[in-house]
């Protein structure tokens, strides 16, 4: 299933036909399909800060995942069981994912940055039967192990000690055969459970079928200018525990034969990011808007680092004009913005290669997906009107359900549309503008204001390292725009800077969107996927 290059967007969209086979397994699609024909083909490369980078081939991935899958079965883990993966980017993470899919179990990726309470909540909700983790993850697990009766097996990827009766992953692999009878799975069989990022409330577990991988290919190929191309090699700072890292990068790249670069860092560091792209000869990257804005803090990056990027994509929040223009100059490519959610991902995209790009727009519907902006009755609104972004069903990237939450599932999958809760506008050319989460929209003096463009504008000021905007209750205006700003290193915050930033937004964005209040802070709350947790800032603003 490959998008043909050299054709127009209209032709691609008109002629696209889904070709998902009646029997499909994510694990074999990501490993064995290549291992059977090109076992020495490199599929993974790992960046090490000491320069001792390493690589894994498809043949190795296939054999190790087969052996681990046999080990899981020997432990009694099988079809439908949840296998938690509390790991950073790395070879072992991919092996564990592929092994889980091959036996028909359900992978539950979890971020190492989760606190103990968040980790316990997710493991309990999913009733995970097994967990694969490292020493750091084990240190979190020790505190809650006795409160997880469903968790029968703990598998360690390193040699750290433990008193939880854990097993070593490499020992399990060495002890079991690499010949495997893969579970007979169809596209709709459960394969993957990803918790939403929790920006607006408690995270929910979205359950996906094996079809979700095939469903991501058109969006991935469009955003990365008809990947795979000769020399493509992809990297993202996004945690593989999230849809952004796992489904926007790792799994589709593996299925398409594109080497994936991994890195051990958990907290985004701009200098390290440039170094990875330089030393690992990265040609393709997925960098969320927040991370792109942080890259701006690296002075003279084009002369310090030798980049040879072919494509850069971004999603998760609105990119904004300031960051769009900066990236074009500093990275040497036009960022292809795209859109999706944990429940329905990679359905809107840009592709500068064929002229599908507009600053401030998240793109056009990806071939194979029907996307619209609808009103409260489920009817499509006219161009220029604000409504809710929605995806027509059935669609292979639409999730199966929320785990053990029928009410939330029914609300999300209302009627023929999956409703996103995100507000957008469709223009006359078919481009969609992302305005923001319905919960995040600021209502001030009759205007409905999206916070992302304010944050992007503020981030364009040299004195601003990071910014977030929320609505603060106001008796006269309903709400006023309140901004929280992390100053750039060496910048002295104060009233003079606040006044300067207000004028900056007034003149560069709009008179009605400038922040009437600005608070300078040391940090801004982010999810582990790099999104601003605005609900916490709204609560803080209301209390001030």
UniProtKB/TrEMBL annotation:
> What UniProt keywords are attached to this protein's entry?
ATP-binding, Ligase, Metal-binding, Nucleotide-binding
The reply on keyword Nucleotide-binding is yes
**Mind telling me which InterPro entries this protein's record contains?**
AMP-bd_C, AMP-bd_C_sf, AMP-binding_CS, AMP-dep_synth/lig_dom, ANL_N_sf, Mitochondrial_ACSM
Task: Outline the extent of the AMP-dependent synthetase/ligase domain.
Answer: 33-403
What PROSITE patterns does this protein map onto? AMP_BINDING
Family according to the record: Belongs to the ATP-dependent AMP-binding enzyme family.
Its name, as the record gives it, is AMP-dependent synthetase
Q: Which organism is it from?
A: Rhizobium deserti
